[in-house]
């Protein structure tokens, strides 16, 4: 069943904004996404201004950056004051991990299957005596019932991905937020695998910190990230990176006044990445215009078709099929394929047919976005079937 909220005309119009669709069946938004023409146009515009006018238009750029800060906040139910532009997800997670001033024996809870971005910044604290604990992952699900047992009086932070990059498990963010509030634990969300594709309201969900880069579901350029820090916690985070831009009056270069911004700008130590922020702004505008809630419904409709087709082909899904935990990531493997040789061969086969997917954590990961179509999913399934046939012929 096709449950997309979009009309055919709408999808046609959206696809026209993504010239990548002429070359590829692009199903790797959980990896690095393509950008849309509005994103390129925004970057081109600021480039043209830099080319012809240089920093004489600096005030205009700064105003625009503030506008994009507001749009970024709107996307997640935050306030502009709570948003800092950072380099990437890792940058945001590191600023919080380092800035929280955790003490020896303090505990941080992660999961068994986090992407390194949400591991290494915490592992770096182990040498200071901070203790890391991990929520187990079984059959595509984080075993959240284990959380209660993992928590002690020393638990200071729970840091998790909004969607697991390998098995696509979508975290029930509001439940974890409530749990953290009840136990007085900070809650950090690595939201790169859902921001832009699934709605989030950080205030309602009691998220304290959120970090995400633009290059996946936001459909923006690489290397520009958004860090959200809940307003009442901004003063609790010691900025570990400092510079002229960290202070209340950044442009008074000749008067030294070491007084940090009261808002999240204190985490922006130097000159902003204006070009990429422009690109990010255009990407967010497009998502807000289409509507994130509708985007989520479209993606889930595509993944319904995909899951159904893969099951019929006898493939093994790494995902939980519980609707509550479903995301934009579907991951599967062959029942018997010990060294993932067939899986890697399938990835190459699909690439040769201009279908872009990728192998992660021993599964083939497929991650469609709002401009992908049912037909594209059908073509993918057809090619998987062809591959199975070819492989069968070889065996015989
Ligand atoms: C869960 C998760 N976090 C973070 C990242 C990327 O981090 P960064 O934005 O620092 O490149 C990825 C990319 O694959 C990811 O899947």
Helix content: 25-40%
What's the rounded overall pLDDT mean? 97
Topology as a string of helices (H) and strands (E) = HEHHEHEHEEEHEHEEEHHEEHEEEH
Work out the strand percent. 5-15%
What does the largest sheet look like? Answer: 7 strands, mixed
| Spans where pLDDT lies below 50 across 5 or more residues | none
Task: Tell me briefly what this model is.
With 396 residues, the chain is α/β, with parallel strands linked by helices. The protein has eleven helices and 15 strands.
Structural summary, described in words:
The protein has 396 residues and is α/β, with parallel strands linked by helices. Strands 2-10-9-8-7-3-4 form a seven-stranded mixed sheet, sandwiched between helices. Strands 11-12-15-14 form a four-stranded antiparallel sheet, with helices on one face. Strands 1-13 form a two-stranded parallel sheet. Strand 14 and strand 15 form a beta hairpin. Helix 2 runs antiparallel to helix 8 and helix 9 runs parallel beside helix 11. 42% of the residues are buried. The mean pLDDT is 97. Pyridoxal-5'-phosphate binds next to helix 4.
Overview features:
396 residues; alpha/beta; seven-stranded mixed sheet; binds pyridoxal-5'-phosphate
What order do the helices and strands come in, and which of them pair?
Layout: H1 8-16, E1 25-26, H2 37-53, H3 58-76, E2 83-86, H4 89-99, E3 107-111, H5 120-123, E4 131-135, E5 137-138, E6 141-142, H6 147-150, E7 155-161, H7 173-183, E8 186-190, E9 209-213, E10 225-229, H8 274-290, H9 292-312, E11 316-317, E12 330-333, H10 341-352, E13 355-356, E14 358-360, E15 363-366, H11 374-395
Parallel strand pairs: 1-13, 3-4, 3-7, 7-8, 8-9
Antiparallel strand pairs: 2-10, 5-6, 9-10, 11-12, 12-15, 14-15
Helix pairs in contact: 2-8, 3-8, 9-11, 10-11
The chain binds pyridoxal-5'-phosphate.
């Amino acid at each position: 069943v096709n449950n997309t909220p979009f009309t055919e005309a709408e999808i046609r119009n959206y696809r026209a904004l993504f010239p990548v669709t002429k070359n590829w069946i692009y199903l790797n938004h959980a990896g690095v996404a393509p950008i849309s023409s509005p994103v390129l146009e925004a970057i081109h515009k600021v480039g043209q201004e830099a080319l012809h006018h240089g920093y004489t238009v600096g005030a205009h750029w700064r105003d625009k950056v503030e506008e994009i800060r507001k749009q970024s906040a709107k996307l997640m139910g935050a306030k502009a004051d709570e948003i800092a532009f950072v380099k990437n997800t890792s940058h945001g997670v590191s600023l919080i991990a380092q800035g929280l001033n955790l003490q020896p024996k303090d505990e941080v809870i992660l999961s068994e299957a986090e992407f390194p971005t949400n591991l290494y910044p915490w592992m770096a604290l182990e040498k200071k005596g901070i203790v890391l604990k991990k929520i187990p992952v079984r059959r595509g699900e984080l075993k959240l019932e284990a959380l209660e047992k993992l928590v002690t009086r020393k638990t200071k932070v729970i840091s998790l991905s909004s969607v697991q990059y390998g098995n696509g498990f979508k975290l029930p963010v509001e439940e974890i937020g409530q749990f953290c509030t009840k136990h007085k634990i900070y809650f950090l969300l690595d939201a790169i695998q859902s921001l832009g594709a699934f709605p989030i309201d950080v205030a309602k969900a009691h998220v304290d910190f959120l970090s995400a880069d633009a290059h996946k579901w936001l459909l923006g350029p690489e290397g520009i990230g958004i860090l959200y820090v809940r307003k009442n916690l901004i003063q609790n985070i010691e900025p570990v990176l400092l510079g002229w831009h960290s202070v209340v009056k950044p442009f008074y270069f000749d008067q030294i006044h070491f007084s940090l911004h009261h808002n999240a700008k204190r985490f922006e130590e130097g000159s902003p990445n204006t070009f990429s922020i422009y690109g990010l702004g255009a990407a967010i505008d497009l998502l807000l215009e289409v509507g994130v809630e509708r985007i989520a419904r479209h993606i889930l409709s595509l993944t319904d078709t995909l899951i159904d087709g893969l099951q019929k082909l006898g493939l093994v899904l790494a995902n939980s099929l519980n609707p509550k935990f479903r995301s934009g990531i579907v991951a599967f493997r062959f029942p018997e394929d010990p060294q993932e040789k067939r899986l890697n061969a399938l990835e190459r086969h699909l690439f040769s047919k201009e279908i872009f997917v990728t192998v992660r954590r021993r599964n083939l990961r497929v991650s469609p976005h709002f401009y992908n179509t049912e037909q594209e999913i059908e073509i993918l399934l057809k090619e998987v079937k062809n591959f199975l046939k070819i492989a069968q012929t070889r065996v015989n």
